[in-house]
Amino acid sequence: MTVDAAALPLSGTLDVDGFMDFLETRPEGEHWELIEGKAVMMAPASYAHLRIASNFCNLLNSAFAARRLDLYAYTDAGIRNPSLRNFQPEPDVVVVPGISGYELYSEHYHLVAEVLS
Predict the structure, then answer these.
(1) pLDDT tens digits, residue range 29-66?
(2) I need a surface site. Which of 4, 53, 55, 111 has the fewest CB within 10 A?
(3) At CA 76, angle to CA 20 and CA 84, rounded to 5?
């Protein structure tokens, strides 16, 4: 469901479930993350930022394949920490184990990286 609704105030009281409900009311194309209980709208990344994240993923994935490790690096993948119900970011690079499924957020990850650009 996509509805043009006013954004929630930065109240700091949202949990993962409330945040997912909130996302259903937002127009497509908006990028939001749940940070410390606040819905935070993220600005689009620059091409340089995207290139750095992509290069890092490629480097990691080449190293994982060469060592036959059951790991894969993704860009802009969501993560969750079961003990932090008010935090659901989408880091620039995430390394997760195992075969990819259809999950939108992983609770099992080995590396989380943010590109500073």
Answers:
(1) 899 999 999 999 999 999 999 999 999 999 999 999 99
(2) 4
(3) 45
